[in-house]
Amino acid sequence: MKTLRSFLICCTITLLSTTVAQAQTTMTIKSQYGQAWQQQPPLSLRSSDKELNIPHYSFNVEVFKPINDHFAIGAAPGFSRRGTEFEFGFLNGFFVGASFRARLFLNYLELPFLAKIETNIFRKLTVHGQFGAGLSYLAGGYREATTIGSEATTTTQDLDFEFSDAELSRIDFGGYGSLGLGYPIGNGQIILSGNYYYGFVDVDQKNESLNRNWGVGLGYQFPLSKANDED
């Protein structure tokens, strides 16, 4: 709980310190939907040779401070669902293989720090790229475990970080990248983007289990302050 409180305090301080900047600070309310996965298990242990993904979604508040007409820096605190269709390894004494498999759904609070490059490409249409890195905190989640036999049975278990899931790393660190388009509507811009996350920390400390996800994002950007030249 101390780690969670520290994370939330850090998010709040970052958001407040950015919004009081003298430049024309912008805020984007953004959500995305796509797919998430981890390292794929060997083909001999999979039920198929297809990618084993679960639905990914996220919700973020992006706040950017312009450095010049085309470059800005900021942060994007938010929530992200990650995980894997096939949790590889041992689970409560059972080997996750042909007769026993588990889907892992992980709920993260995240705080990426980002740089943004933006330019006009046609009349009012703009294109932008964002890249950066940040920490994520595993706040909770659950596992769907299925025993495969004459009659398949599935049970849902909340993650227990004190006992059975103590080897799951609750801190993730990864890189963020996105490419998007913006078009002015009202006082702001509608934003459409493609987004990707590449984790650098194994979720399960016993196995290779780096988080990955991609998503299509939709958001609305609006100014939080007036530009300096409007004196």
Keywords:
231 residues, mainly beta, 10-stranded antiparallel beta sheet, elongated
Explain what you see:
8% of the residues lie in helices and 60% in strands. It is built from 1 helix and 12 strands; from the N terminus they run H-E-E-E-E-E-E-E-E-E-E-E-E. It has one helix spanning 2-19; strands at 26-37, 54-66, 71-75, 78-84, 89-91, 94-96, 100-122, 125-147, 153-158, 171-185, 188-202, 210-223. The strands form 2 sheets. Strands 1, 2, 3, 4, 7, 8, 9, 10, 11 and 12 form a 10-stranded antiparallel β-sheet that branches. Strands 5-6 form a two-stranded antiparallel ribbon.
Q: What does the radius of gyration come to?
A: 20 Å
What is the general shape? elongated
Given helix and strand content, the structural type is mainly beta
Number of strands: 12
Helical stretch tally:
1
The main sheet comes to:
10 strands, antiparallel
- pLDDT averaged residue by residue: 84
Strand content: over 45%
- For this structure, the quaternary state is single chain
User: How much helix is in the residues?
Assistant: under 10%
- How are helices and strands ordered from N to C? HEEEEEEEEEEEE
Low-confidence stretches: 18-22
| Terminal CA distance | 46 Å
